[in-house]
């Protein structure tokens, strides 16, 4: 019976699923609330499945409704992407690649990729969105992104990943910190200092790697602050509120009163991986991957 479903049903369902409120959803769609209720009831009858639990106080998605919401989001996003691609092809362009990234990828990998794309495929357009690891994975799975740059040790099965950059780590200290690079013997001399880290939720692999660097030096770091932005971390270090360990490439592009001491003699490396959906059919993505992976 699914042949009776129409695109409008999907859009009406998503509006109610997002708002969990029929009046607000109806206003968002510019239709009457009774009309919207009829459309949702019709959709449930066609599917022979209850999608919402409704009472006078609240509206909630059923388990089936939650599943359908994720699937319809994927379908709508893919349709929107396809429509945009068609317009670009019709205008003589060669498509768009939607890229998500962590801030550190902008220091090296992404600028080089964009220059290569401009040189080899000048009609491919790109859009950039700075997102956390988890947000990128979610967007890739929902077809909201074509390509991501993450620091993750593994990704879900529908995705494929490839290491694209290995970086050393550096200690970040206030400019006035009383030690010179040539006198720095190892992280163990910082055991009594407060540490400022990227949030564990933002990048679990980075967080665990920093912990292992300190544990190899014989101590567990005292964490005073966490952030998701390098600029914030450097500002805290600059104001003597702690020290940090970050990928060395992050020292570029920030004019702040901090100094970096590269940790060359440790085994840990900051690993950046490209990640994409295996069955992504965007032809522009393949051109992008060819340039990225065939260095």
The number of helical elements comes to: 9
Indicate the proportion of strand residues. 15-25%
Instruction: Please estimate the helix content.
Output: 40-55%
Number of strand elements: 12
GO molecular function: DNA binding; DNA-binding transcription factor activity
Pfam family, one: HTH_1
InterPro entries: LysR_HTH_N, LysR_subst-bd, WH-like_DNA-bd_sf, WH_DNA-bd_sf
Family: Belongs to the LysR transcriptional regulatory family.
Outline the structure in words.
The chain is α/β, with parallel strands linked by helices. The chain folds into three domains: 2-74, Arc Repressor Mutant, subunit A; 93-165 and 272-293, Periplasmic binding protein-like II (D-Maltodextrin-Binding Protein, domain 2, 3-Layer(aba) Sandwich); 169-268, Periplasmic binding protein-like II (D-Maltodextrin-Binding Protein, domain 2, 3-Layer(aba) Sandwich). 40% of the residues lie in helices and 22% in strands. The protein contains nine helices and twelve strands. A five-stranded mixed beta sheet has the order 4-3-5-12-6, sandwiched between helices. Strands 10-7-11 form a three-stranded antiparallel beta sheet, with helices on one face. A two-stranded antiparallel sheet has the order 1-2. Helix 1 packs across helix 2 (22-29). The N and C termini lie far apart (50 Å). Residues 5-62 form the HTH lysR-type domain.
